[in-house]
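Protein entry
_____________
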Amino acid sequence: MASSETRFVGALNAELHALGRTGHRRRFLPGEVIFSAGDPGDGFYLVESGRVQISVVVGSGETRVLATIGPGDFFGEMAVLDDAPRSATAKAEEETETYFLARAELLGLLERRPQFALNLISEFSQRMRALNQKYADEILQAERLAVIGRFAGTIVHDFKNPLQVIGLAAELACSDHTAPPMRAKAADRIARQVERMTNMLQELIEFTKPSGQQRLLA
């Protein structure tokens, strides 16, 4: 069964061919920037072949990949519909061929074909839900890592007392002047402190195990 993206793209391709828009094919070389963040939202792209990387620059100046677009998928629609500058950068990962539909043509297409508009709205909704889920997972992971950091710091601090006990008991057990009953008592204290430290480490291991994906309902 065809995916929603495939059905949607098929309709768009049919419409483009019906309009005779073959002159709107655009080819890009590997690494070529298709558009940059801040550029005008002048059109909408449908990938015929190749792959396109969508990325943004975050506050620290780091480039962050949001998505990779392959054949049969599309990109650049939000800025077109918002009539706003591009919010991300699109770059060809490999040799890529696209169909390009200018903003006025896309809006005219949506006006003439209500079902096409509904398909587009449905696709936007799915993409926004997926994006919400992605960032919700990242936020949960960041919070989890912060808790793990605090937890690890606490464990390191709590290790000081058992280590001191183990050190004193080991010194006592190794002394030539220690009586056998005291040696046995020192060995017992070492074993108990080792068990205590093992339990603390096990708690940390259990806490850091993946607990499955959290689902965001929106």
In short: The chain is about 55% helix and 20% strand. The helical segments are 4-18, 77-82, 103-112, 114-158, 160-174, 180-208. The first helix runs from residue 4 to 18. The longest strand covers residues 43-49.
